[in-house]
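Hello again,

I reread your note about wanting to compare the complex against the isolated chains. To keep things tidy I'm splitting this into two emails, and this first one only covers the full assembly. Below are the input lines as submitted, including protein chains and any nucleic acid or small-molecule components. They are followed by the predicted structure of everything together. The single-chain runs will come separately.
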Amino acid sequence: MLARVRRAPPRYWLVLVAAVLLIGLPTVVTSFQSSQWNLVLIFTIAIMGLNVLVGYSGQISLGHGAFMALGAYTTAILIARYHVNYLVTIPIAGLVTGAIGFLLGIPALRLSALYLALATFALAVVTPSLIKRPEQLTGGVQGIGLVPQEPPQFAAAAFSTVTGGTQMTSEQWLYYLSLAIAVLLFWVAWNMIRHRPGRAMRAVRDGEVAAAAFGINVAGYKTLAFGMSAFYAGVAGSLYGLATTYVSPDTFPVALSFQLLVGAVLGGLASTVGPLLGGMFVYWLPIVSSQTISDQSWIPEQISSVFVKAGPAVTYGALLILIMIFAPNGVVGLITSGYGALRKRLRGAGERGTGQMPPDPQTG
Amino acid sequence: MPLLEVRELTVRFGGVVALDRVSFDVNSGEVVALIGPNGAGKTTLFNVIARVYRPGAGAVMLDGEPVLKLAPHQVVRRGLARTFQNLALFRSMTCLENVLVGDHINIRSSFLGASAPVPNALKAEAEARNRAVEVLDFVGLAPHAHHPVAALPFGVQKRVELARALVSKPRLVLLDEPAGGISHEEVGDMARLVQRIHSDLGVTVLLVEHNMGFVMGISDRVVVLDFGRKIAEGTPAEVRKNPAVIEAYLGAA
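Full-complex prediction:
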């Protein structure tokens, strides 16, 4: 056991460090900052699902914002109209969205990549308008307001013990709720990817004819990937609604779907920690880019004014182009190859041939 | 009853007749080679049997059961596995993972069972790993188990293909040019390996190959195709003397 711990590849330590930081975060930052990081975690969950679809099954979706909307509205409607406990609505939102994603996946997999992108894009475009229609149910353009969820007794008590008497706020509680769900869903996706279904998805991505030759139902696994990633987006949407305590058609614009996809690519497709980086990008980039770019005196006025006027979309586009050129495997790919090169330097080239590969490098 | 029956198989690509009423049998326990000049229709025939192409006419029976009614992914469940001419390995995976995909049909774990990993699914995975390592050992690749296939030499990748096709314990394996593109020494190793597939594992073999030394050394019977038609069939010695075969390979005198 101890030997296994000592031999663990550095990425496991990285995950451990990240987990400790994420758990401790709300005890040192303000309640408002906790709510910001809550949204980072929520985008991370959505991107984890997108990563299964795009990174591992090799399909594309420009419509995951719509799946998030579906999850958020499921939760909001169940709470506001039917007075269901908010914790219960989270899995329901995931399952409803997952089922719809699965059904949409059936016709979608008859389409080639380009048309699938268009079809899912159409979904993202029509969803905000569709939501406005059944006004009794969805509140139309007004949307649905929710009350903030108070932390349960045990969480509040634990929090005040750790922080020395500070009262736990709703934001901090929802952060921990999202963190727990993110860890659970990360664990589920990680297991799925390493085992039979994940191998089948990757096989479909690498070569459909060969995958079918070994008994993999290509259409079936593509649909499953669609359903699973919609489930994740639905859960993320549900948590998003709880976090912002308000859902409206404008909460889930077309741009959100793009941002999620860009986040997945930026973080690194088919990587396990990529989604967390992607979630950070999706949340912080619009904020940071609009604030800092105008402050930079070295950037010519003409350029910075374009960035400020056009909003985060320009920054997203510019970053996406840079990533595609310089780091096609995303930030995680950049770090991995950088680390590999560094290690080779340190060990000397002579040992290159004998260096043992870590087990299952794919799952890193 | 033969293990594989190919009956009057005809395939057209536009105006080109790729296969013209081809019939032959493969009996259980045989090594049968399919030979012919380039463009004779050998790989097309493989792809019809493996349900990649749909033939215009004809039938393929595996152990008396019609193959052409099956979906592509159901063929392997009937005990028919294959390798690919131009290597169709899953390039992002390790050798072991490639072989595990080959055993997909025998791993008893569901989507949910594997994701939440329940003990049964983990046990099924562990057993599958043992089988995969065994087969990798059989083809002499155990040390490469955790290496990504894309980084390995071509000859090694060929053996990964072989391991992936064998791990599900098929009754019949289709080998598309097992000796194609590998070095002279490796051809001898591959021939011994194919013989061991036959003798040690008891798997019936149907193979396509251009290397005549390889074919003549290991085959029980040879079927010769030329321009989509079967022009000869028999033991290697018989086929070698057949005037139609000599003409097809050397051109009319």
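For quick reference: The CA atoms of residues 64 and 257 of chain A lie 5 Å apart.

B.
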